[in-house]
Amino acid sequence: MSLNRVLVAGGSGFIGSHVVARLSAQGVRVVVPTRHRERARHLLPLPTVDVIETRPGSPSFWQALEGCDAVINLVGVLHSRWGDPYGPEFREAHVDLPARLANAAARSGVGRLIHVSALGAGASRETLPSMYLRSKADGEAAVRAGGVPFTILQPSVVFGPEDAFLNVFARLQRLLPVVPLAQANARLQPVFVGDVATAVVNCLRGTATLGHGFELAGPEVFTLRELVQLAGRWSGHPRPVIGLPFTLGQIQAGLMGALPRPLMSTDNFDSLRVDNIATGPISPALGITPTPLAAVAPAWLSRQGSRLAAQQARAHR
Ligand SMILES: NC(=O)c1ccc[n+]([C@@H]2O[C@H](COP(=O)([O-])OP(=O)(O)OC[C@H]3O[C@@H](n4cnc5c(N)ncnc54)[C@H](OP(=O)(O)O)[C@@H]3O)[C@@H](O)[C@H]2O)c1
């Protein structure tokens, strides 16, 4: 389809920034709504990108949809207060916003909605182990019911130079002599952020994915323990990783979840109770060949290791 103007909700975030840069490089005019302009400052130099400070409660958010050929939804949160079946922050970001986006897009005659959900959210809601996944499942249902031509993508955990995943594991190993790890044997199939951005743009441009949901995962399955070990090794600070027994892991997650910017919460712990791996090969309709972790992660993790070492050396001078 011809793409003149695309709204990228969540465009200021980790995956969104890659998608926005990709579209901008193709000459597409991109509108990025953000609640805090400062969060999107890295997008301001991009020639075809308009950053607008607004929030979904405000009319200007919805006015930004006018004249858009397509909408990409990358809004997501990792933490929420408790609720049944999910807490208010998960409801707002993962269910209410996609529902309103899909309805508003349909009303405005937007041609496509690409909705980024999460691997595992396609199962029946009652069987899902966490509030995060349950809210993602209901968000998918809202998009399917919204009346706009859609594609749903379900990535496993996403890695890339700016991720809050391998980078955090690497930083922890700089600081701690050992890593006590909850759910160490959980299995994941991490996917490269560049591949996710390519898949999003391919879905937008073609029609093969219309009306379907797709799992999006990398070429290899790792346990969480293996991923922490690789992050330590590639950043130059390998530490012993000690898998915590279930109850101790749950307590650790509960304590960490009480911190202002938690690395882990009880709900994250619950998400890891089921393996986060694709049910089959990645669909050729997405037009990607998933990048192996070892092909890209050592380069940025080793740079991060050297940068942190230099900072520490300066601090101790
Ligand atoms: N990263 C992963 O490993 C991963 C794995 C599977 C699925 N996903 C999904 O992929 C999507 C993008 O993930 P990401 O890692 O790029 O996330 P991210 O870096 O945390 O960015 C999230 C974005 O959502 C926006 N946002 C959050 N809460 C909002 C709210 N209540 N109202 C409006 N905007 C809100 C933020 O915008 P402002 O703060 O600028 O307003 C930000 O741009 C999410 O749906 C996530 O669940 C991510």
Q: Structural class of the secondary elements?
A: alpha/beta
Net shape? globular
- Rounded average pLDDT: 95
The H/E string reads EHEEHEHEHEEHEEEHEEHEHHH
Q: Which small compounds were modeled alongside the protein?
A: NADP nicotinamide-adenine-dinucleotide phosphate
- Rg from alpha-carbon coordinates: 20 Å
The level 1 CATH classification of the domain at 5-161 and 188-216 is Alpha Beta
Quote the beta fraction. 15-25%
Number of helices: 10
Q: What's the CATH superfamily of the domain at 5-161 and 188-216, by name?
A: NAD(P)-binding Rossmann-like Domain
Biggest sheet, open or closed, and with what strands and sense? 7 strands, parallel
CATH topology of the domain at 5-161 and 188-216: Rossmann fold
What is the annotated CATH architecture of the domain at 5-161 and 188-216? 3-Layer(aba) Sandwich
Number of strands: 13
The span between the termini is 58 Å
Question: Quaternary arrangement of the chains shown?
Answer: single chain
> What percent of the residues sit in helical stretches (DSSP H or I)?
40-55%
Strand arrangement in the largest pleated sheet: 3-2-1-4-5-6-11
